[in-house]
C-alpha cells in the first residue's frame, strides 16, 4: 500500500479542505516573489504519470513540484512502453521502483489512481480519472471562489462558502470536475444546483446534496456563481443531444443571457472551453469570468497538496525546512513552508 | 470421464438430506451405484470409508452454468482444471457454456469439448450455441448438436438481440426436446454500461447499465414463450423486477425456468466503490433491494436453481482499469458455501459479518439447498435422466454424492483453489460450511477437500 495520497475530495472533509486552502494562500505569496521557489521538498521526487493527454493539469503539477524544489519526472503514455503493450501495473511499479515520493496520475478510466495506490509505495494524487473525480481542480475552484469573494468584500478570504449559490451547468454526467466540485462546494457549505438536459445529468444524485434543474434561465436569477462544463461533440453521436446549436440555445452562456445577469455574478469553467457552445467568447473574457484566475491558482493549490502529502517525510538538509519535523497537518503555522528561513 | 476402477465407497456417519428432511445414515456405493442406505451399515472388506461425521450428505451438485474456457482460453481455465474446481465445490456435473473459441456451435466443436471432458473429474455436459458463432444472426445447427446429446443451448455472454430470430429459434427447437437458455441483456440499453446504473455508478463516474436492459429482454422472451409454446431457461436473473416477471409467468403456467448466481444473492453494487474489476460481472451486481428479491425468489421457488456462472479470467485481465477489464467471477469452489451462508443459517447461528443481518431471509432448509443446487438443475439440464444426477440418494440411485460440513468456517484465499484463475469476489471473506468429499459415479474424486486426481 502506498502512503496517503489524494484520490477523492470525499477523503478530505471540510477541515482538511480549509487547511489546504490556507496552505495555498501561503504558496500564492511565494508565487508573487521575484524568485518564486522554496526548498520545502528538496530531495523529494514527484512523477507526473499521465495516460491521457493534458495541458494545464500536468504543467501546473510540474510547476508546483519545481517551485517546491522537488525533482520531477514525466511519464506520458504516448511515448512510453505502454505503446509496446506494457501493462498498467507494470508501468506504475516500474516508476515506483525508481524511488518516487508522489505519483500524480491521470487516466481516461475511472478508478485507476485508486488501483495504482494499492500497487505502489508512492503517494498517489488523482489528477483526473475518467468521469470520476478531479480533486485538485475542485480545490482550485474553491480557492478561486474564496479569492473572488474576498476581493469583492475587501478582506481576508473566508474559510467557507456558506450561503453561496452555485449552478453547475452542462455535462455533469460525464464530468469528473463536477463530481469533485459537488463534494468540495458542499463540504464548504455552498448550495449547488445542477443544470442541464436530463440526458447530461447523472442517472442518480442520491446522496449528493444538490438540487437539479433543467431550465437555465430560471436558475440564473437565483445563483451567485455559474460553473460551466465543456460540451463534447461526441455526445451527439451517443444521442445525449440533438445538436450543439440547440444546446447552446438552451444551456449556453450566450451574450444575450449574460447581459441579463446581475453584475456580481461570476462565471467559472475548468477548461478547455469550447467558445460558442457552452460559453460565448466575449463572456469568457469578461470581467465576471474567473477562468484565468482558475488557471493561475492551479500552481499554488497543487503546491499545497504536494507539500501536505510529502513534507512530513522531508529530511533536514542544507537549507531544509522545519516542516520536516512538524507532525500532523501543515498549515497551522509551524509546518507551513514559506517561512523566513525557507527562502531559496 | 476417464475409465477408472471403481472402489466400493461407504460414506459413514452423516446426515443424509432427502426431500422430507435429514436422517442419520451411511451410504454404500458399489460400482457407481448406491446399493444401501441406513444407519450403521457394515463396511465391506477393502471399501473406501469417507467420514461424514457432523456433515450433510446430499446428491452431487449440478451447475447449469460454467465457463470452462477450453478451447481458446486455456490461460484462464481448461476442462480439466474447471472440472477439478467443480469437484472441490461438491459438483458431480456441470454444463459447459458455449462461448469457447471457437464456440460450440456445430457438431464438430461439441465433439471436441466432449473429448476433452473424458479427462474431467466430473461429468461435463456441453451446451451448444443458439446462433452460428454466437453472432445473433443465423441459427446454429441445433438438431445436429441435439443428436449428440446436447440438451441446453445458449449464446451466453451475450443475449440473442433480435426478437424475430429468437422466435424462430424457439419454434425450431420445440420438437427437438431441447432447452434454449437466454442471457438477458439488451445491448442497446446497456450502451457501454459497465456496472448497474444507479446511485453508485453516478457517484463513481462509471457508465451504468439500467436494470431494464435485463428486464426488457426477459419480458420479450416470456412473450415469445407464450407465442411459441417452447420452454425456455433464464440465466443469472438479478433484479427484483425480473423475479416478479418470472413469478407472474410461472403463475400463468408458462414453461419457464431460471437460475441465480451466488454473487447476485450476496453482493451489491457498493462493492464496485474500490474500482476492483473483480466485481465487474454481467449482469452487474445490483443494489440491496434486488439482492433481497433474488434471495426471496430462490426461497419461494420462483427461481429454480443456484448456478455459478463460473467465469475465470487470467490475473492480468483483472488488473486492467475497471471499464476495460472483462466481466466475470469464478464460483465453482465457493458456491455451496456462499449459498449456505446466505440462505441456510438459522436463528442463533451467526452469519459471516459481511453478509449483513437480514436474518429473516435466511430460513431455507438444507433440503431447499440441495433442491436449488442439485435436483432442479439436474432436471433442467436433463442430467437426471441422462446419468442420474440430482438424487435423491436411495438404493438404485447413481453414486453422485456431496458431503458438506456445515460447521466449518473458512476464509477464501484467492489463488489457493483448483481453478486456473483467481478472480473470486469472495477472497478474504469468511464462509460458513465447506465441501469435504465429492463422489462422482462411485469415484471419490475429492476426499477431505483434496482432489484425488
How many distinct helices of chain A?
A: 12
Average of per-residue pLDDT values of chain A = 89
- Beta-strand percentage of chain B? 15-25%
Envelope shape of chain A = globular
> Please, what is the oligomeric state?
heterodimer
Instruction: Round the Cα radius of gyration of chain B to an integer and report it.
Output: 21 Å
Fraction of residues in H or I helices of chain A: 25-40%
Please describe the biggest sheet of chain B, giving its number of strands, its sense, and whether it closes into a barrel.
9 strands, mixed
Radius of gyration of chain A, Cα only, in angstroms?
A: 20 Å
| Low-confidence regions of chain A | 314-344
Main sheet of chain A?
A: 5 strands, parallel
List SSEs of chain A in N-to-C order. HEHEHEHEHEHEEHEHHHEHH
Main sheet of chain A: which strands, in order across? Answer: 7-6-5-8-9
Q: What is the terminal-to-terminal distance of chain A?
A: 34 Å
Share in helix of chain B? 25-40%
Descriptive overview:
The complex is a heterodimer of chains A (344) and B (453). Chain A has 344 residues and is an alpha/beta fold. Chain A has helices at 13-31, 56-67, 88-97, 112-117, 135-153, 176-187, 216-220, 234-237, 244-251, 255-259, 281-285, 291-310; strands at residues 45-50, 71-76, 102-107, 123-129, 165-169, 191-195, 211-213, 225-228, 266-268. Helix content of chain A is 36%, strand content 13%. The two termini of chain A are 34 Å apart. Mean pLDDT of chain A is 89; it is low at 314-344. Chain B has 453 residues and is of the alpha/beta class. In chain B, the strands form four sheets. In chain B, strands 1, 2, 3, 4, 5, 16, 17, 18 and 19 form a nine-stranded mixed β-sheet that branches. Chain B has a five-stranded parallel β-sheet with strand order 9-10-13-14-15. Chain B has a three-stranded parallel β-sheet with strand order 6-7-8. In chain B, strand 6, helix 1 (79-88) and strand 7 form a beta-alpha-beta unit. Chain B starts with 8 loop residues before the first strand and ends with a strand.
Amino acid at each position: 500500500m502506498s502512503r496517503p495520497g489524494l484520490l477523492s475530495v470525499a477523503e478530505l472533509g471540510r477541515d482538511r479542505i480549509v487547511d489546504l486552502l490556507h496552505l495555498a494562500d501561503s504558496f500564492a505569496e511565494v508565487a508573487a516573489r521575484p524568485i518564486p521557489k522554496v526548498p520545502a521538498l528538496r530531495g523529494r521526487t514527484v512523477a507526473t504519470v499521465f495516460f491521457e493527454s493534458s495541458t494545464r493539469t500536468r504543467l501546473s503539477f510540474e510547476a508546483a513540484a519545481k517551485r517546491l524544489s522537488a525533482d520531477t519526472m514525466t511519464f506520458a503514455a504516448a511515448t512510453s512502453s505502454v505503446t509496446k503493450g506494457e501493462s498498467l501495473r507494470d508501468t506504475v511499479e516500474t516508476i515506483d521502483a525508481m524511488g518516487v515520493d508522489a505519483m500524480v496520475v491521470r487516466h481516461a478510466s475511472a478508478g485507476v489512481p485508486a488501483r495504482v495506490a494499492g500497487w505502489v509505495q508512492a503517494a498517489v494524487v488523482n489528477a483526473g480519472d475518467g468521469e470520476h473525480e478531479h480533486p485538485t481542480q475542485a480545490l482550485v475552484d474553491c480557492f478561486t471562489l474564496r479569492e473572488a469573494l474576498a476581493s469583492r468584500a475587501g478582506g481576508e478570504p473566508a474559510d467557507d462558502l456558506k450561503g453561496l449559490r452555485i449552478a453547475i451547468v452542462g455535462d455533469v454526467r460525464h464530468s469528473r470536475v463536477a463530481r469533485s466540485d459537488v463534494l468540495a462546494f458542499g463540504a464548504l457549505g455552498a448550495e449547488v444546483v445542477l443544470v442541464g438536459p436530463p440526458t447530461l445529468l447523472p442517472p442518480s444524485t442520491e446522496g449528493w446534496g444538490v438540487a437539479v434543474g433543467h431550465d437555465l434561465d430560471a436558475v440564473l436569477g437565483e445563483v451567485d456563481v455559474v460553473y460551466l462544463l465543456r460540451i463534447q461533440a461526441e455526445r451527439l453521436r451517443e444521442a445525449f443531444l440533438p445538436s450543439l446549436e440547440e444546446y447552446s440555445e438552451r444551456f449556453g452562456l450566450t451574450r444575450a443571457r449574460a447581459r441579463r445577469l446581475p453584475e456580481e455574478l461570476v462565471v467559472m469553467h475548468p477548461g478547455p472551453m469550447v467558445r460558442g457552445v457552452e460559453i460565448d467568447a466575449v463572456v469568457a473574457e469578461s470581467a465576471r469570468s474567473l477562468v484565468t484566475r482558475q488557471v493561475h491558482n492551479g500552481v499554488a493549490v497543487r503546491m499545497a497538496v504536494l507539500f501536505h502529502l510529502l513534507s512530513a517525510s522531508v529530511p533536514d538538509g542544507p537549507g531544509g525546512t522545519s516542516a520536516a519535523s512538524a507532525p500532523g497537518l501543515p498549515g497551522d503555522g509551524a509546518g507551513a513552508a514559506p517561512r523566513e528561513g525557507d527562502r531559496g | 470421464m476417464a475409465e477408472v476402477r471403481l472402489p466400493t465407497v461407504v460414506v459413514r456417519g452423516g446426515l443424509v438430506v432427502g426431500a422430507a428432511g435429514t436422517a442419520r445414515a451411511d451410504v454404500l456405493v458399489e460400482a457407481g451405484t448406491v446399493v444401501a442406505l441406513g444407519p450403521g451399515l457394515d463396511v465391506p472388506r477393502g471399501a473406501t470409508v469417507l467420514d461424514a461425521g457432523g456433515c450433510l450428505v446430499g446428491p452431487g451438485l449440478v451447475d447449469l452454468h460454467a465457463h470452462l474456457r477450453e478451447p481458446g482460453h486455456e490461460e484462464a481455465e481448461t476442462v480439466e482444471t474447471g472440472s477439478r474446481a467443480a469437484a472441490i465445490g461438491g459438483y458431480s456435473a456441470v454444463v459447459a457454456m458455449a462461448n469457447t473459441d471457437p464456440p460450440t456451435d456445430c457438431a464438430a466443436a461439441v465433439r471436441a469439448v466432449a473429448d476433452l471432458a473424458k479427462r474431467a473429474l466430473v461429468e461435463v455436459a456441453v451446451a451448444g450455441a443458439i446462433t452460428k458463432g454466437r453472432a445473433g444472426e443465423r441459427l446454429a445447427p441445433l438438431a445436429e448438436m441435439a443428436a449428440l446429446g446436447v440438451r441446453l443451448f445458449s449464446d451466453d455472454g451475450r443475449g440473442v438481440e433480435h426478437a424475430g430470430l429468437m422466435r424462430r429459434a424457439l419454434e425450431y427447437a420445440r420438437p427437438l426436446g431441447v432447452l434454449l437458455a437466454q442471457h438477458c441483456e439488451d445491448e442497446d440499453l446497456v450502451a457501454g454500461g459497465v456496472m448497474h446504473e444507479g446511485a453508485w455508478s453516478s457517484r463513481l463516474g462509471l457508465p451504468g447499465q439500467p436494470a431494464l436492459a435485463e428486464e426488457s429482454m426477459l419480458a420479450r422472451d416470456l412473450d415469445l414463450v407464450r407465442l411459441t409454446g417452447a420452454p425456455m431457461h433464464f440465466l443469472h436473473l438479478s433484479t427484483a423486477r425480473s423475479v416478479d416477471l418470472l413469478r407472474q409467468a410461472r403463475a400463468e403456467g408458462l414453461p419457464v425456468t431460471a437460475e441465480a448466481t451466488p454473487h447476485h444473492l450476496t453482493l451489491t453494487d457498493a462493492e464496485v466503490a474500490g474500482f476492483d474489476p473483480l466485481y465487474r460481472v454481467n449482469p452487474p451486481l445490483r443494489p440491496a433491494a434486488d439482492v433481497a428479491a433474488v434471495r426471496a425468489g430462490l426461497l419461494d421457488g420462483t427461481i429454480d436453481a443456484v448456478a455459478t456462472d463460473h467465469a475465470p479470467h487470467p490475473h492480468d485481465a483483472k488488473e486492467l482499469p475497471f471499464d476495460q477489464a472483462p466481466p466475470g467471477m469464478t464460483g465453482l469452489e465457493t458456491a455451496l458455501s456462499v449459498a449456505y451462508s446466505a440462505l441456510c443459517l438459522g436463528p442463533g447461528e451467526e452469519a459471516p459479518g459481511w453478509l449483513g443481518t437480514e436474518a429473516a431471509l435466511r430460513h431455507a432448509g438444507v433440503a431447499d439447498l440441495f433442491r436449488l443446487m442439485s435436483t432442479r438443475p439436474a432436471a433442467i439440464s436433463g442430467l437426471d435422466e441422462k446419468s442420474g444426477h440430482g438424487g435423491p440418494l436411495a438404493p438404485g440411485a447413481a453414486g453422485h454424492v456431496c458431503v458438506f460440513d456445515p460447521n466449518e468456517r473458512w476464509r477464501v484465499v484467492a489463488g489457493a483453489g483448483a481453478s486456473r484463475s483467481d478472480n473470486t469476489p469472495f477472497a478474504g471473506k469468511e464462509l460458513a460450511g465447506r465441501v469435504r468429499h465429492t463422489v462422482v459415479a462411485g469415484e471419490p474424486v475429492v476426499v477431505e477437500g483434496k482432489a484425488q486426481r
